[in-house]
Design goal:
3 domains; BirA Bifunctional Protein, domain 2; 22 strands; binds aspartic acid; OB fold (Dihydrolipoamide Acetyltransferase, E2P); globular; Gyrase A, domain 2; alpha+beta
Length: 586
């Protein structure tokens, strides 16, 4: 038997017991007469003592051991003279009387401590060492715990976990597919699933009634910060349900996770329509940990001779409470912030509501104190508050103000990572116009049903942009953590949908034929959603990056730094796959 106990469990209760422990050498201290070693495994750290007087041989041996050596020790549990109340095992130590080195280790390239001296790249290259660090281990433990909670919760509700294939047919809608060449079918390719969408709908046709899967998904997108080319969804689908059933079911799941993991309980999650989310937060994933809702200011801002406002489609502002004492420098910073190319505002107007009831603004030339008071009343700004105003084309301006609102929220400490504010965003637009290709795209995917009230609009091309989807997102702290929709199960509606997306019947048949075919054999009404599991873990883990919650993540360029993937393959492999590489221009 390698061990009797782990390195995290022995306490004063075990005094006098003979034990065998295994683990890695975290640290050793040589005090001449005594040598101390901290032995670490997944469960904790236990202090080992080697005494020069009683066991000079062992003590000599212990002194020579390096960091991260793998050890097995036998000894007796003893009370420590100087206790460490910060460690669960801090009251005891092991008086060692047998030591075996199970494996030696090279000096690790960074310290295996909570705060490592290794940079990101180095830690990714040696991820297996990084995994030995407490913070990374704790993240994976949280991930495991969440996965188990999800599985048990859904299983108790009669959901079946069913695996769907990873080698599937490529479909051009959505993001770019990763493709896999087929050796047995030269010139043909599988795609890796962007999500199990079509299969889960087929499972509903197959009568499975309630399905879920912790599903690996693959999207070959240009990687923005903190996106992974492969990621995990909690993917779900249900038959014979309406939107309300879906929202209730998965709100229940989220409440369960928040209660179990964070100890917080919630009443019904707020719901907001997509239109209102854009109007009041400029975002379809509003962070509602704080207020600072948008106030539209056209009626007080226009007609006073300030051309910038007069010519704008929309003048809209936020009120930052207690910020009237912002300095020139702080206001300049905010102006620079909104003018950054990623945000793209032309400028920022501020109006300070001074403590003495006067106003000071960047547009004093155009507006009287009376005019500015009207702004303040609209924004419900009090003495001491600061109004920040943007203007321009409506949707663009809202998105810009959304960034500013988040920035102000962060500056004012209104977005603490240990507060969780979930909400549903409903009634998304069904279609999104793309200027470049001059056609509509499905905002969610082509199987999303239109809002029942808007069905007739499918026959009115000029109104296509107004059609609402029967779709919903769940948002947590400004992140879309899940989304889904009621699916189209009626062949005629699906045909119309393909028509609005510019597919000919032949194209629709070629791409989605098997699903459409299945729908002709009695598809039940069905609906579902998928959560982004990695992101959910990172938010509940109160961390910014999803990478820290994935055992072996890719870097921002989509590379596995440790295994060095992607990589070239041999000429033989290429030949076998009937692939000829065209030399790339450098
Ligand atoms: N498959 C969808 C997605 O990946 C989610 C859904 O509609 O269930 O976004």
């Amino acid at each position: 038997m390698y061990r009797t106990n782990t390195c995290g469990e022995l306490t004063l209760k075990n005094l006098g017991q003979s034990v065998t422990l295994c683990g890695w050498l975290q640290r050793s201290r040589d005090l001449g007469g005594m040598t101390f070693i901290d032995l670490r495994d997944r469960y904790g750290v236990t202090q080992l003592v080697f005494n020069m007087d009683s066991r000079p041989d062992l003590c000599e041996q212990a002194r020579k051991l390096g960091r991260e050596y793998v050890l097995q020790v036998k000894g007796v549990v003893a009370e420590r003279s100087s206790k460490n109340p910060k460690m669960p095992t801090g009251d005891i130590e092991i008086l060692v009387d047998e030591l075996s080195v199970l494996n030696a280790a090279k000096v690790p390239p960074f310290t295996i401590e909570d705060h490592s001296d290794g940079g990101d790249d180095l830690r990714m290259k040696y991820r297996y060492l990084d995994l030995r660090r407490n913070p990374v281990r704790r993240n994976l433990e949280l991930r495991h715990r969440l996965a188990m909670l999800v599985r048990n919760y859904l299983s108790d509700l009669n959901f079946l976990e069913i695996e769907t294939p990873c080698l599937i047919k490529s479909t051009p809608e959505g993001a770019r597919d990763f493709v896999v060449p087929s050796r047995m079918n030269p010139g043909q390719f599988y795609a890796l699933p962007q999500s199990p969408q079509q299969y889960k709908q087929l499972l509903m046709v197959g009568g499975m009634d309630r399905y879920f899967q912790l599903a690996r998904c693959f999207r070959d997108e240009d990687l923005r910060a903190d996106r992974q080319p492969e990621f995990t969804q909690i993917d779900c689908e249900m038959a014979f349900v309406e939107q309300e059933d879906v929202l209730q079911t998965f709100e229940g799941l989220m409440k369960h996770l928040l209660k179990e993991v964070k100890g917080v309980t919630y009443d019904a999650f707020p719901r907001i329509t997509w239109n209102d989310a854009m109007k009041y937060y400029g975002s379809d994933k509003p962070d509602i940990r704080f207020g600072m809702r948008f106030v539209e200011l056209d009626d007080v801002a226009k007609g006073k001779g300030f051309a910038v406002f007069d010519d704008a489609q929309l003048v809209v502002g936020i009120c930052a409470e207690g910020c009237a004492d912002y300095t020139r420098k702080q206001l300049d910073e905010l102006t620079d912030f909104v003018k950054r190319p990623q945000i793209g505002a032309k400028g920022l107007v501020y109006i300070k509501c001074n403590a003495d009831g006067t106003f000071k603004s960047s547009v004093d030339k155009f507006f009287t104190a009376e005019d500015l008071r009207a702004f303040a009343e609209k924004c419900q700004a009090k003495a001491g508050d600061l109004m920040l105003v943007l203007c321009g084309e409506a949707m663009k301006t809202r998105k810009q103000l959304s960034e500013l609102r988040l920035e102000m929220g962060s500056r004012l400490g209104l977005r603490p990572s240990n507060v969780f504010a979930p909400l549903w965003v409903i009634d998304f637009p069904l279609l999104e116009w793309d200027e470049e290709t001059q056609r509509y795209y499905a905002m969610h995917h082509p199987f999303t049903a239109p809002h029942p009230e808007d069905l007739p609009l499918l026959d009115q091309p000029e109104r296509w942009g107004d059609i609402r989807a029967n779709a919903y997102d769940i948002v947590l702290n400004g992140n879309e953590i899940g989304g889904g929709s009621i699916r189209i199960h009626n062949r005629e509606v699906q045909n119309k949908m393909f028509h609005t997306l510019g597919f000919t019947d032949e194209q629709a048949q070629a791409q989605f034929g098997f699903l459409m075919g299945a729908f002709e054999y009695g598809a039940p009404p069905h609906a579902g959603l998928a959560f982004g599991f990695d992101r959910l873990c990172s938010i509940l883990g109160e961390a910014d990056s999803i990478r820290d919650f994935i055992a072996f993540p890719k870097n921002n360029a989509g590379r596995d730094m440790m295994a060095e993937a992607p990589s070239e393959i041999s000429k033989e492999q290429l030949d076998e796959l009937a692939i000829r590489l065209v030399p790339q221009e450098k």
